[in-house]
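Milestone 3.1: sequence recovery, worked example.
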């Protein structure tokens, strides 16, 4: 019997899995935590009460389980906007609707310490992926409910955290005002940090703008929390704060589920303090 025709517009594997992430409908929860690093998926799910390892393909690792009674998944995006967009598209195809990025970043503010957390209140779209979807004037903003859940999670954990605008780039080196090989630089890269500081931008990272833009276009909810690995003002770097970011993401997913339950019990579409009264 000839195999079923697969559309080039929406490619799938022969067993109806999403082409890149190799998951199918029923494999993932509505809420998904998105680390960049595939190895971070294991660290995220190690905190859960139950875990199913769903898929491993290329840079995309997916686990599904429960955390404090909340159903959730984790799926790695790899670095940058293109992988992030693939993951959002394919997870959405199989039922995911809420996305929480858990990553790392570099702060542009002197007073923020290595290992602190930064929760994004918006993103400067310095990457190119989101521009394939909508004109550059379109805002990249998180869902207020996910933002509130992340803040509540950080508070509950006693974590040092900050709120601020992120700048998402395509290049870790010149795109974030680092010199390339042999000291290669350009005039538009050497002054980037000062330009963003004047606009009160808090940190560099590489995925939030794509995540926020696509989530808003499709009517999904999204947010992002990053551990600070670098302070570009003080020229300091250390891998620190990953555990705090992971805990914040997991707790935020649980809090978001609680918000939804409270809204449902009161017949409300949007969460506010009034829902709890």
């Amino acid at each position: 019997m000839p195999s079923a025709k697969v559309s080039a517009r929406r490619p799938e594997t022969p067993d109806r899995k999403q082409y890149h992430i190799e998951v199918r409908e029923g494999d993932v929860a509505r809420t998904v935590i998105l680390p960049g690093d595939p190895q971070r998926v294991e660290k995220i799910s190690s905190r859960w009460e139950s875990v199913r390892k769903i898929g491993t393909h290329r840079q995309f690792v997916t686990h599904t389980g429960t955390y404090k009674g909340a159903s959730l998944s984790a799926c790695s995006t790899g670095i940058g906007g293109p992988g992030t967009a693939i993951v959002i598209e394919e997870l959405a195809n199989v039922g995911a609707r809420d996305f929480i990025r858990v990553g790392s970043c570099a702060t542009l503010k002197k007073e923020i310490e290595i290992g602190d957390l930064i929760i994004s209140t918006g993103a400067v779209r310095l990457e190119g992926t989101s521009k394939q979807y909508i004109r550059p004037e379109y805002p990249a903003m998180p869902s207020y409910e996910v933002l509130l859940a992340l803040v509540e999670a950080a508070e509950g954990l006693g974590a040092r955290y900050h709120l601020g605008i992120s700048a998402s780039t395509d290049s870790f080196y010149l795109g974030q005002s680092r010199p390339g090989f042999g000291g290669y630089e350009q005039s538009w890269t050497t002054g980037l940090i000062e330009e963003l500081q004047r606009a009160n931008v808090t940190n560099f990272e590489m995925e939030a703008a794509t995540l926020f833009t696509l989530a808003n276009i499709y009517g999904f909810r999204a947010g992002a929390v990053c551990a600070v690995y670098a302070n570009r003002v003080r020229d300091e770097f250390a891998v620190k704060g990953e555990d705090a970011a992971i805990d914040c993401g997991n707790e935020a997913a649980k809090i978001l589920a609680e918000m939804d339950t409270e809204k449902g019990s009161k017949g409300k579409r949007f969460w506010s303090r009034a829902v709890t009264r």
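The beta strands are 31-35, 50-57, 60-67, 70-75, 98-107, 117-125, 161-168, 201-205, 221-231, 236-237. The chain has one domain: 31-267.
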